[in-house]
Amino acid sequence: MDWAFQRRQTGNETALKRPIGFLYLGIGLLGCGGPGDPSNKTESPKAIESPAEAAYRDHLEKGRMLSQRAAETLNARLNASLQQGGTEGAVAFCSLKGLPLLDSLEEAHGVHFRRAAVRYRNPENRANAQEAEHIARYEAELAEGRALEPVVVETTGGKTLFFSPIVLAPNCTQCHGKEIEPAVMAQIKARYPEDRATGFDPGQIRGLWSLEL
Ligand code: HEC
Question: For residues 120, 126, 132 and 135, what is the CA-based torsion angle, rounded to 10 degrees?
Fold first, then answer.
């Protein structure tokens, strides 16, 4: 098995992808006992990591933690407004705008949050070429039944970007699915005349968390 660091060059970015089993395999190789030896669990994986690998892992963990917190915050507000005002009343709340926690995370961690989609609702969220490439890659991986892993990419301009897929859950279909109530659709069309974000099935890739770390 090739467990060395993989470098992937696509356009203006270099993606460093670490195979999932890397840490555990590394521990097993370094440890004196077999994989079942409990002493292996306390061994530090850092011993076999290069600085570039360690930086990649730190960025990945930071992006994962921040995007999860953002998703939880957004979902909590969306669910609360769905309960209070029904689907129609909740149309304004599937947005990153007006979430104080996100603003404070941006300030505290020097991060910029964005959700990007090819089939976008708000044109501000329209995927750029790089984001569209990652959405297409996640769609292909999903079709092949592969695990969808977040990635960190360094741009030639010196930016560190984090991407992770947003998969449609069943309760998202009331505003992004195939059968949307006319009153809800009217709200959506009034606010987003360019809307392209309907017709999805649960389990499809809806878009990306796109963070600048
Ligand atoms: C009550 C209606 C509603 C529900 C339910 C809803 N959305 Fe949205 N969604 C919207 C609206 C409205 C926007 C545009 C927000 C904006 O202006 O940024 C949006 C935008 C998005 C975007 C940003 C990209 C774009 O197209 O503008 C993503 C990603 C997204 N929704 C995913 C989801 C997911 C995943 C769920 C289920 C957990 C969900 N939505 C549930 C109404 C909804």
Answer: -40
